[in-house]
Amino acid sequence: MNPLKKHLLIPLLISGISATTVMAQQKANKPAPVAGESAKPSVTLNPDTTITSQHEVTIKGQKISYKVTSGTQPVWDENGKALAGIFFNYYERTDVKDRGTRPLVISFNGGPGSASVWMQIAYTGPRLLNIDEEGYPVQPYGIHENNQSILDVADILYVDPVNTGFSRIVSKDTPREKFFGVNADMRYLAEWINTFVSRNSRWASPKYLIGESYGTTRVAGLALELQNAQWMYLNGVILVSPTELGINRSGPVNAALRLPYFAATAWYHKALAPELQQKDLTAMLPEVEAFTINELIPAISQGAFLDDAKRKAIAAKMARYSGLSEQVILQYNLDVPTDFFWKELLRDKGFTVGRLDSRYRGIDRQLAGERPDFNPELMSWLHSFTPAINMYLRDELGFKTDLKYQMLGPVHPWDFNGDNSGENLRQAMAENPYLHVMIQSGYYDGACDYFNAKYSMWQLDPGGRLKDRLSWKGYRSGHMMYLRKDDLSTGNEDIREFIKASTPKGGAAAKY
User: Fold this and answer.
1) What is the 3-state secondary structure (H, E, C) of 60-114?
2) What would you report as the CA-atom Rg of the chain, rounded to the nearest whole angstrom?
3) What pTM did the predictor assign?
4) What pairing do the DSSP bridges indicate for beta strands 236-240 and 352-353?
5) Which end of the chain has fewer CB atoms < 10 Å from its terminal CB, N or C?
6) pLDDT at 21 over 60
7) Residue 261: Cβ within 10 Å count
8) Which sequence spans correspond to the domains of the chain?
9) How confident is the model at residue 453 (pLDDT cuts 50, 70, 90)?
10) Domain 31-38+48-247+383-502 sits in CATH 2.30.130.40
11) With contact defined as beta carbons under 8 Å apart, do 28 and 398 qualify?
12) What confidence score (pLDDT) does residue 29 get?
């Protein structure tokens, strides 16, 4: 027997799979695991096991061969005991001769408690779930080629943090505090990344982090944690639909910054006055943004001592921009909660609007009330993503387990104390002249709205000396902007260009 084949078959024989079975699988049309698959699926987690499979995809007209490694890698305690197994999928382009110059993108989703499914099979990965052109579920469920994937320019690692996806804590005796908090999350994941990079010989590669939603808190903090605790330096961080990143915006600023999002949503639902409605979205929004900064924040700051006539004038402008009535805005003292907006905007038409993507409409038990009964966009996404990821991991990639793939896992209570992720990212950029940051936002995202994302970018660099390495991109969809077909293409192209621009030419020194 060929020594290499013998080497690969030994772990399979130990786990109860015969060489004959493996060879038969390799002759089949679908990809076959070559190492680490259990003989029988189980709900018991093996914290350190992998399988590999070979695939092809056509991206931008170019056929690309790639390998997927799926499996688990442990999180250890200080004594080398495995505390948890972290599930991952690692995509490598196989025709690359020099892996040292090949960028590696490490991808996280948010929650906290969300698996990496969303961006993996709907955004940057080489496989795409079946949805319509605006992101709504269709049947039959399934996946197909993603010819917009960034795999042409970078290898991609998708990571499921503890208790998401197939990732699990090994022992019930392990304290939850080791994983479920802002800073605990960053610490163990930085250690885990170090091990992964070492195991897969990726220390020489330009490295990027991409996070979505709470994943932006995670990767912003990881940028500094990797530098300070692992001595690992990044080329870029991509923040998709970012959180507040621990940046203070309480009081009048917090109340005012949501208005541009209200305006975008009202424009989409044709709830604005004709003179605003006839403008294009991106032509209309600068007017609202200027009003927010120059008039609304100062007005709310005056509170009870704002002149009555001025208060009424401000409320009239807010009504014009938001699609809400002047009366209801005055009733809320110019500070309209977002959950009320989602309930109120289309109340007269019998609908609510979505939190994470306000293009989606919902139907409540009753028209009365101050907030929607449910999030229609999240229900829609779980509808399409859950079958697709289970079919993909179990059937196409061949990862056999009886564990439930946890789309949204049990990670609460989560310790949100000590969130300095925005300042951590600024410090990492200051310490590392190579490090660039790009923000991607959907105009119709009401959970992590686009104008708050702009505000975070402004506050990340109050001195203005890093702004040539900070950029913001807007898209005509919601929290998962990539679900809309046009934004899938544009968003991936923006990432592609960001990677190319922030990967220095050989020998270019990192210095000021």
Assistant:
1) CCEEEEEEEEEEEEEEECCCCCEEEEEEEEEEEECCCCCHHHCCEEEEECCCCCE
2) 24
3) 0.91
4) unpaired
5) C
6) no
7) 27
8) 1-30, 31-38+48-247+383-502
9) very high
10) no
11) no
12) 33
Q: What is the pLDDT of residues 394-429, one digit of tens each?
A: 999 999 999 999 999 999 999 999 999 999 999 999
Q: Is 470 helix (H, G, I), strand (E, B) or coil?
A: strand
* Residue 122: count of CB within 10 angstroms of its CB: 24
**Half-sphere exposure of residue 277: CA atoms within 13 angstroms, side-chain side:** 10
Q: What is the pLDDT of residues 291-316, one digit of tens each?
A: 999 999 999 999 999 999 999 999 99
Rounded-to-integer distance, Cα 29 and Cα 70, Å: 19
Q: CA separation (Å) from 442 to 64, 356, 415, 454, 489?
A: 30, 9, 27, 12, 14
Two tokens at 392?
Answer: 């993909």
Looking at 308-408, list the stretches that DSSP marks H as alpha helix, in order from N- to C-terminal side. 308-322, 326-331, 338-344, 376-391
pLDDT above 90: percentage of residues in the chain: 88
pLDDT of residue 43: 75
Q: List pLDDT tens digits, range 166-202.
A: 999 998 889 999 999 999 999 999 999 999 999 999 9
Q: What was the pLDDT predicted at 40?
A: 65
CA torsion 438-125-123-494 (nearest 10°) is 40
CA dihedral 292, 295, 301, 307 (to 10 degrees): -140
Helix (H) or strand (E) holding 352: strand 352-353
List the structure tokens of 167: 């990732």
The answer to which of 43-47, 104-108, 350-354, 429-433 has the lowest mean pLDDT is: 43-47
Check: CB of residue 48 under 8 Å from CB of residue 85. Answer: yes
- What residues are paired with 52 via a beta bridge? 69
Give the residue from 216, 150, 240 showing the smallest Cα distance to 441: 240
Rounded to 10°, the helix 421-431/450-460 angle is 50
Q: Determine the Cα–Cα distance for residues 509 and 487; give it in Å rounded to an integer.
A: 35
**Type of residue numbered 182:** V
- Chain centre to alpha carbon of residue 159: 11
| pLDDT at 27 exceeding the cut of 60 | no
- Average per-residue pLDDT for the chain: 91
Tell me the C-alpha distance between 190 and 197, whole Å. Answer: 11
Could you tell me the maximum CA-CA distance found in the chain, to the nearest angstrom? 90
For residue 37, pLDDT beyond 70: no
The residue length of the chain stands at 512
Closest Cα partner for 11 from 33, 31, 37, 32? 37
Element (H, E) at 186: helix 182-199
Q: What does the alpha-carbon distance between residue 388 and residue 384 come to, in Å, rounded to a whole number?
A: 7
Both tokens of residue 67?
């390998």
Q: Which residues contact 142 (CB under 8 A, 6 or more apart)?
A: 129, 130, 387, 388, 391
